[in-house]
């Protein structure tokens, strides 16, 4: 009996049926889910295996690098510094897919010079910047093109006028003598613990209000009155900082719903507008704005029925208030904190001040000893110490630009049209390739030449006062105010940290304030001290 062999046609048919059945089973929802899960975990394992101890954030599917940024937002500036140290001075941040959150982050002075100076026209502030900083309106910080040029010309004429410079110097000395020194003397007598950053913010708030409006709100009084405008500005700066790192649609929705940081920003906006309106009205009523920046806007103020004129004045004064109050106070707070950790630097400042005291024929018992702006202008070490503090803790720790056309940076990175670039001024100071192996140290001597003169550093390297055509117009004013305050405190008082356990660290905000302030005890200098 013979057994017939299966035909080739039957074998092919069976194989085809088996293959189709297998493919059908592979494309069930259960299998696809299992396959996707397996792929995801294998990819996750691959990323973690290759990441090891790297500081470079993981580029996750869909979410990009945003999770790592949000986890480090509380220490944002130090986190960026770690990224630059490991990956170089320029880094491309990839945000969530389709949300337009990709941007370059750099601390390379060559890139700064290229964008802020050499190719300035290609990198305006842009519409996105002005939308994020909408609370500043159409003021000089948000403006571009002809609007910016017009505002800058006017501000330059005002701040550079000899009469205004004289007004700044005289008022700064008077405020220190009649406001700051008496307050610190009372605190010293009581042995009270005080937040020095708060004291300095109150001082610079009074000084800035007087320079802008011709009004002294008296925030530095011994009662430490509540300052709604100052609190509002702090809340606003924190909310604006957050806007940089969340999807635009997200914060827009929060703004519409008035929730979270956007709720605080809306409330802050109302407080700031009310304060500006009251200050302008008070200045007009008392006719005491002569010498202030408001003087040049008197004609516009008279046209209050014109909403455009009023908005222009509102936006201008809010921008001036931000520039004067926050940045100067932040710079001074970090300056005194650094001096407390570097007594040798304080001794050298005292030595310089001692020479002026000798010229003034001050007695050992003289208190307080005060200085005119002209006397302080020639002090090399004091100026160097202030520059060094501003280098390590720049009041504005980041800058933000957008490109109009495609460009190639000196670092070799290709920037597309509409590309976004974030500059870390804070990190630049901590790059050995920029400032040397001792970059993290407070060393005022780096600003002094072998001949004992002040050493000039290019602004693309020392970006505390911006760079290029947008260089800060108030730089000289800021130094006049800071020197008046620094000299008075260093010469007449000792500032001691109240507790070793109090952590002083940067606050995540547009302005580099101390997160929890700095609690100190103030003591009068001993008579034997120089």
Automatic annotation (TrEMBL):
Q: What is its EC number?
A: 1.14.19.50
List the CDD domains: CYP86A (cd11064)
Q: Under which main EC class is this enzyme filed?
A: oxidoreductase
Choose one Gene Ontology CC annotation of this protein and give it.
membrane
Supply the Gene3D superfamilies for this chain: Cytochrome P450
Which InterPro entries does this UniProt record tie to the protein?
A: Cyt_P450 (IPR001128), Cyt_P450_CS (IPR017972), Cyt_P450_E_grp-I (IPR002401), Cyt_P450_sf (IPR036396)
Catalytic activity entry? 4'-O-methylnorbelladine + reduced [NADPH--hemoprotein reductase] + O2 = (10bR,4aS)-noroxomaritidine + oxidized [NADPH--hemoprotein reductase] + 2 H2O + H(+); 4'-O-methylnorbelladine + reduced [NADPH--hemoprotein reductase] + O2 = (10bS,4aR)-noroxomaritidine + oxidized [NADPH--hemoprotein reductase] + 2 H2O + H(+)
Q: Which GO terms describe its molecular function?
A: heme binding; iron ion binding; monooxygenase activity; oxidoreductase activity, acting on paired donors, with incorporation or reduction of molecular oxygen
Q: Which cofactor does it need?
A: heme
One GO term under biological process is:
lipid metabolic process
User: What keywords sit in the KW lines?
Assistant: Heme, Iron, Membrane, Metal-binding, Monooxygenase, Oxidoreductase, Transmembrane, Transmembrane helix
Keyword flag Transmembrane: yes
Q: How does it sit in the membrane?
A: Single-pass membrane protein
The principal location of this protein is membrane
Please report which protein family the annotation says this sequence is part of: Belongs to the cytochrome P450 family.
**Protein name per UniProt:** noroxomaritidine synthase
Species name = Iris pallida (Sweet iris)
